Amino acid sequence: MSLAIENKTLLLQMNFINGDWCEAYNRQVLPVINPATGEVYATVPDSDAIDAKAAVDAAAAAFITWKNVPAKQRATILKRWNDLILANAQDLGKIISSEQGKPLAEGVGEVAYAASYVEWFAEEATRANGEIIPSPATGRRLTAHKEPVGIIAAITPWNFPAAMIARKIAPALAAGCTVVCKPAAETPLTSLALVKLAELAGVPPGVLNIVVTAKSKEVADVWLDDPRVRKITFTGSTPVGKHLARESADTLKKLSLELGGNAPFIVFDDAALDAAIEGLMVAKFRNGGQTCVCPNRIYVQEGVYEEFVDKLTARVAALVVGPATNPAAQIGPMINAKAIEKIESHVADAVSRGARITTGGQRIQTRECSSDTYYAPTVLVDVDKHSRCFLEETFGPVAPITRFATESEVLEWANDSPFGLAAYFYTTDLRRVTRVAEALECGIVGINEGALAAEAAPFGGVKDSGYGREGSTHGLEEYMHIKYTCQGGLD
Q1: CA–CA separation, 45 vs 22, rounded Å?
Q2: How far is the C-alpha of 394 from the C-alpha of 388, rounded, in Å?
Q3: Which of 62, 296, 438, 453 is most deeply packed, by most CB within 10 A?
Q4: Helix (H) or strand (E) holding 487
């Protein structure tokens, strides 16, 4: 199967600033590596502070007019963008698979997921209603208006290069904000293709600007220091998120931080076991385990532990690993060698603490899987809860399992983490559903369900997993502030 794209105009390798496709000011470039082969797929600008400031200058000039564009007109542009994304879904999916490595079916599926946010916020743009407030005195009229925050700086990750940029940019544009964006250096091409489609949809020059770089700190520092940038939206690691929070304090920027996760997946004795297995397969092995809501700690109650392990091992052992050019592939390569090394260290640590490998547990290298970035889907059993794979995000196709005895015990373990993004549990006891859902310390809970994300639902975490919400009506509010007006002399 070929990953060659039909619409060649989507394969862009330049910055987009003030409506112009341009090289970096310093003329430096960086390679985009196809993780499936280890080969250079494209080269893109390696921008610096000069480009970052130029993007803010363009966004500041454009904001003056964009914020006053009627919501219905902004919605029309976003709907055209949604239509163009869906019309080019196959090519966009191929770009995702070529630079990120995920199977093509997942790449195309991600495009549809990204488009769902664009469509959702196109509709939400016309629903940003204010309030008329009952006055405590005669002769006054009190109102609350929602207004765009201003310039948004969006910093997106490599694991979902289409979905993450859409989930941040669509609500910003819907609210009337302008945007400067830095995609991940590993996967910039998808973002550039989406911005090209936004340009074709009618987004005016300067409203949406994208700067590609491996000099992340240099570019981000420009945006952090510039008081014209009023909000940072970031998806990535907790340490980087905390740095952004600290450094944005001087200009008191608004922040949306979707940070690390360490999701527990709990299977109670009374669970529908086959459904729990299916839910875990969807949640754990999507994108090769490289998602922030992946189950990272699997707790199975004693009564069903052995049966669960046997069934899961059989399912995981049957997964097909290969490049996106193999239509049967279910697990692609990891993003780079550093990711593989982390996975290996987590597995070795767990084994050193007494865990057993029931399937997988090693790199894969065949003629088809020719690069050094493939890792066999792995099941670890009898994992000590102090193992690194229970304490840190593995970000790979490793399912670590341990057993528990009681509900109170597993809830204590599940909440014993600085992270609080997602959690999952399976049970047929309706009373337990309420108890456990309310007791879990996280922003998202899957109850007898492994697929959580939806454009209409609020996505975000608590504790070290960040704050702010993406998607849903709450996602639009993240890009707006409220202006109160009091008009007197009406009596």
Answers
A1: 9
A2: 8
A3: 296
A4: strand 480-487
